Structure to design on (876 residues):
């Protein structure tokens, strides 16, 4: 039988802190990093080459080694297993990781061990797509509702999303699926960019980048806020003047505030007609977000990149605390948990606008959005997926964004394979780059 | 100046899975473990011996090495620092760990990095007590309300517990403090035991242990449930018959159920007059706990051992989802965060009944309960602290429980120092015990 022969986890770090890319009120010196898992087999893929899987989770520097260690420990359980058995029942494969009660204690289902599970399962999803020669969004979109509901992690969701209801949502999306796939392939999925809005950028750089992004077809602009209210008022005014009255302007505070401060600060920016305030406070504070949402309407509340599992999303949505669901493909434990969150979002009619950027998140998250459109919500309405034009050159099959939209690339797998050259350069601490600076 | 000279983190694992101690519906093979941090200095302690600090967090086996690694990385920042500056301002020392935005990404404030922070800060609290020759509960209880409120981690709590309100609670507890200290020293703090209720035990063993515990002065009994309803009905009936109608009987499901199942299962046990159902579902599910609480009253809902930070406790209490607050001294990031949760509990009038057992949790948690009684809530009412008579022999100054109550030991520090002999035996994987079995 074809067997998983080894799991390798590589600590990759990119020195992004040198250029203030990725700077926000909470994260001033991020070195975008990936805990990068490579699963090897002795099987052939759809094209006859050796079948492998590449997955990652994203961190911002120190501690990436801890996630790598956890991924190695969690991932060991699949080594020696039958490739087909693992990939034919990805629901069971995913759930088998939850059986390890000793590792579960370290979360449960949150923090380092959950990030690590994401890296390992993402590699298996990449492998599942490669095995059949399809992108993973398409592999999933072509499954039956019954198959999908077995893959989705519905544990602890029965009070708001019983299995029968999940099935009903998926069955409802069967209608028009081929047409939506055709539409997606023709015109892509709507994106927005954070490229112009980093806190470390001067006003001039921000305005230049906004103009550049507009020429590239992006209609929405997002600014980081939260360090100084005066600065935020000035930057929002400049950005709104630059984009005119009709295009969406969003702000992102990266958890800087407590609840009363968030309400006061955001309301001081009401004149700029903001679509959303993102991460106004602690990502754990469901009820706090609801209070903020009630107080700052019509500005919407967006959060999710640090929402650590589907149980948190369940409450955010059930409590009416979230206008935009910004799930993260490295924070949630792979497409099994993402699918559950897509179903919750459909149930509560919350548009999914995934978090991306970092390294590899755009590559993965396009699959989540496409899956949502084709097989779950069936709609683009209110939906827009983050895009940051950063570090894509390290991927063998990077995202392709044109006309302000993610374009279907047609590549098999999860688009998560990185160049050997990039790994040799940025492996930490012994890659060429890091050997040189230390 | 006296300086932190080194931080050592040791992976200790005890082979408890061999005896089904600690078995419950979720955790069938726990090997109680500690990520044990030892901080060395070149300073003398109150008795002139070298000043050291010992702290730990608790895990149940695999993955303890991951927590140790995280504790080493987090703890490095204190090495070389001035001992007095660190210990004189434990609020600032604690908050300085939050400044590391790269490590923060891995939580934030949850999972492995939060457990690791707990181990490191617990060692510093032990050191703070040793430096002045006092137990940490007393070190804290003798501080002014202003000093305490600077130590408590009140970040993200302002909407329900502004600083002024926290100060007011602490000032209110000033009255009668010396009398409460005297009472505590005379009669100790009420405890209950889980010793009889592990799921792996036979009915005979359970009843024998209940009788034994009764002779030792324990009035309350807690049973693990959730594997089989028939078994649970039989075990609850046997236990209730054994202890009579008046003594408290509690059950603990260790997160086994979704919300509808919890409600159905617990209501099927109503006839046994249960005081609480503990961890009925996912520890992240605040709103689910509230729904369960509403549906199973008058049985109370207890949770907290997996409640990963103060923001979660804030919501559990504000939402009316928690009747008993079972904070955990290894899960929360040391007394700084515990103090915040004690203040929240006082604000919402929720009795604090800390989780203990495992290894070292009883040693630490007695300080939390005593601090609560003396300096925060000022009350024993409805409060009872878990106790399990397991693994105390490894501690230099173990808890002393008599007459069903935690007795004040008078030892300086946090009672967290372990015997060199125990470390030599159970260090993983190279201690004598593990070398022998592998």
């Amino acid at each position: 039988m074809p067997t998983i022969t080894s799991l390798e986890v590589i600590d990759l770090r990119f020195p992004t802190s040198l250029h203030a890319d990725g700077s926000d009120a909470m994260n001033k010196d991020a070195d975008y990093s990936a805990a990068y898992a490579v699963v090897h087999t002795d099987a052939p893929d759809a094209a006859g080459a050796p079948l492998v899987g590449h997955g990652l989770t994203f961190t911002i520097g120190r501690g990436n080694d801890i996630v790598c260690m956890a991924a190695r420990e969690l991932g060991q359980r699949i080594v020696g297993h039958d490739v087909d058995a693992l990939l034919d029942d990805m629901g069971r494969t995913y759930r088998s990781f939850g059986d390890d009660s000793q590792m579960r204690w370290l979360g449960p289902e949150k923090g380092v061990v959950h990030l690590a599970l994401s890296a390992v399962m993402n590699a298996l999803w990449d492998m599942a797509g490669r095995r059949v020669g399809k992108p993973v969004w398409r592999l999933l979109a072509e499954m039956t509702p019954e198959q999908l509901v077995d893959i989705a992690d519905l544990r602890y969701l029965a009070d708001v999303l019983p299995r029968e209801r999940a099935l009903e949502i998926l069955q409802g999306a069967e209608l028009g699926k081929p047409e939506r796939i055709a539409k997606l392939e023709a015109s892509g999925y709507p994106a927005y960019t954070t490229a112009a809005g980093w806190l470390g950028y001067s006003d001039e750089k921000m305005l230049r980048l906004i103009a550049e992004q507009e020429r590239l077809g992006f209609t929405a602009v997002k600014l980081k806020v939260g360090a100084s209210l005066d600065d935020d008022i000035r930057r929002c005014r400049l950005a709104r003047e630059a984009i005119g009255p009709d295009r969406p302007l969003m702000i992102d505070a990266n958890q800087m505030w407590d609840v009363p401060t968030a309400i006061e600060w955001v309301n001081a920016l009401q004149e700029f007609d903001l679509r959303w305030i993102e991460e106004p406070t602690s990502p754990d504070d469901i009820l706090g977000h609801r209070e903020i949402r009630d107080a700052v309407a019509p500005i919407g509340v967006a959060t999710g990149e640090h929402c650590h599992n589907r149980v948190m999303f369940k409450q955010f949505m059930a409590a009416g605390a979230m206008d935009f669901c910004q799930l993260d493909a490295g924070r949630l434990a792979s497409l099994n948990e993402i699918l559950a969150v897509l179903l919750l979002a459909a149930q509560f009619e919350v548009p999914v606008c995934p978090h991306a950027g970092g390294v590899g998140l755009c590559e993965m998250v396009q699959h989540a959005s496409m899956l949502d459109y084709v097989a779950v919500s069936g709609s683009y309405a209110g939906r827009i997926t983050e895009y940051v034009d950063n570090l894509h050159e390290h991927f063998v099959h990077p995202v392709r964004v044109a006309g302000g939209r993610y374009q279907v690339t047609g590549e098999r797998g999860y688009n998560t394979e990185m160049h050997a050259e990039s790994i040799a350069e940025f492996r930490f601490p012994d890659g060429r780059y890091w050997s040189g600076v230390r």
In short: The mean pLDDT of chain B is 96. The radius of gyration of chain B is 21 Å.
